[in-house]
Design goal:
binds iron/sulfur cluster; globular; alpha+beta; seven-stranded antiparallel β-sheet; six-stranded antiparallel β-sheet; 490 residues
């Protein structure tokens, strides 16, 4: 997982890009980069670390141009801490394109083989570079320079026929002799991309709408699946379909990854989490269980816990104090540091749990290891009972579309048959009961235009066994390919 932002039409793009990017630091903490186009010259700076470390103020001040893009990269999941050359944006000289992307290309090895045959070498371990090289190859096949809007449209048609997987992309280049900001999404629109307009005619595109809020851009629309949007200062957006399919937006973004104040296709993210909490409450009531208090495991679960408490007419209490400076546990590179990070991150408040029948609310069950440790921490607070309520189905299949989940044999839900799952998981996690939103319940709340393959194995884009092996090997062996994908290990 990563985050990107692009702007065009501002007097100074770089400061705006970095501000917008800072609203999406949660989407990537491994590396950050910013690049602009100014009268035919590209300027690019990228480095490892948080935005404030990777992009120092003097870089922002000296980077000219009214159009540009910026990117945050998700940390690696393996032992490596990531390489500078994997940071985005990427740039080509022929033709000049500055590009950043969020997602996971499933046929990346096939694309790299083809590029090598054409004498082009991929220098990084990041999926964005092959995407950029394919775009450059398709554009130059049409003409060497002076590309038109139709050229861009044709090149993207060919790109979408060649590149499989999840990709939301932002780029700046010259089209029709003008500086142009373009964004496009894979045919299923798996990863998010939203664009908006400023009152003075400038445009912004970003992974999440919170980036637009920061600079007072108003949302115009989400980039439709399999479509491109071309943005230029003072002009109306040019929206063209390229290769659309029925939408399959990543539901895990809504459940877990995106900020609650972001707006996705279905509306504000916190509203969906609220509706899932109400759904959980209904399922809980059907079981005839009783409890004294609802406690969210912060932060993602707050809306669902509030909704559940309201529906059940129970108090909702803050049972954990989160150390905001410790980082998210799943970004830690190995189990030992994840353990330590969790202890550092969540401090339970004894009085909330002591002698109580507690419903703990969380977003997902992936490995189950983090949850087991949280439950153990809560048991030390001497509660009468601990019940677990999860506002998504247990993750039972790996994601090949940009969320760096473990392989199937590491997913705790894959250990048990579906008819025994709830009971066995409750035992494994050490709680009195487990209630989770089923895949049917999730679909009722989130609608049909979602990808939920990690819950039900229904992959919109087929991923061959060789491609699966390649993706998983790159994740676990060197952690570099995962530089563009997160590890939400829980
Ligand atoms: S498989 Fe899961 S995490 Fe991956 S894109 Fe689909 S819903 Fe999102």
């Amino acid at each position: 997982m990563c985050g990107f932002v692009g702007v065009i039409g501002l007097e100074a793009a770089a400061p705006a890009l970095v501000l917008g990017l800072q609203a999406m630091q949660h989407r990537g903490q491994d590396a950050a980069g910013v690049g602009t186009l100014n009268h035919g010259r590209f300027h690019l700076h990228k480095d490892l670390g948080l935005i404030s470390q990777a992009i120092p103020p003097h870089v922002i001040e000296r980077m000219p141009g009214s159009a540009g893009i910026a990117h945050v990269r998700y940390p690696t999941a393996g032992v490596d801490i990531g390489d500078r050359e994997d940071a985005q944006p990427f740039i080509t000289r022929r033709p000049g394109i500055l590009l950043a992307h969020n997602g996971n290309i499933t046929n990346v090895s096939e694309i790299e083989d083809h590029l090598r045959e054409q004498g082009m070498h991929v220098l990084s371990q990041c999926d964005s570079e092959p995407v950029l090289l394919v775009l450059a190859e398709e554009l130059t096949a049409l003409r060497p320079a002076g590309h038109t809007l139709d050229d861009l449209h044709t090149a993207l048609k060919r790109l979408m026929a060649r590149v499989r997987g999840a990709y939301s992309v932002v780029a700046v280049l010259e089209v029709d002799g003008q500086e142009t900001l373009v964004a496009f999404r894979d045919p299923f629109g798996i990863r998010p991309a939203v664009f908006g307009r400023h009152a003075d005619g400038a445009w912004m595109v970003a992974s999440e709408s919170v980036a637009l809020d920061v600079l007072d851009f108003k949302i115009v629309d989400h980039v439709p699946p399999g479509s491109m949007v071309v943005l230029r200062k003072g002009e109306a957006p040019i929206l063209r379909t390229v290769s659309p399919q029925a939408a399959r937006h990543c539901v895990f973004e809504r459940i877990y990854f995106a900020r609650p104040d972001s707006i996705m296709e279905e509306g504000r993210v916190n509203n969906m989490r609220w509706a899932l909490g109400e759904r959980l409450a209904d399922d809980w009531m059907k079981k005839g269980l009783e409890a004294d208090v609802v406690v969210a495991i912060p932060d993602t679960s707050r809306d669902a816990a509030l909704a559940m408490a309201e529906r059940l007419k129970l108090p909702n209490r803050e049972g954990f104090i989160k150390n905001r400076y410790s980082g998210r546990t799943f970004i830690m590179p190995n189990q030992a540091t994840r353990d330590a990070a969790l202890r550092l991150k969540l401090n339970p408040i004894r009085e909330v749990f002591d002698g109580q029948r507690v419903i703990l609310v969380d977003d997902s069950i992936v490995r189950g290891s983090t949850m087991r440790r949280i439950v153990r921490m809560v048991q030390d607070m001497r509660p009468k009972e601990v019940h677990l309520a999860i506002f998504s189905p247990p993750v039972a299949h790996p994601c090949f579309y940009g969320i760096d989940m473990p392989s199937k044999d590491e997913l705790v839900a894959s250990l048990y048959p579906p008819d025994r799952l709830e009971i066995e998981l409750a035992k494994t996690l050490g709680v009195q009961s487990l209630t989770y939103v089923t895949t049917e319940g999730l679909r009722e709340v989130a609608g049909d235009r979602i990808c939920s393959a990690c819950f039900n194995g229904d992959y919109a884009i087929p991923v061959s066994a060789a491609e699966q092996a390649y993706i998983l090997k790159n994740r676990s062996a060197n952690g570099k390919r995962t530089a563009v994908t997160p590890d939400p290990v829980r």
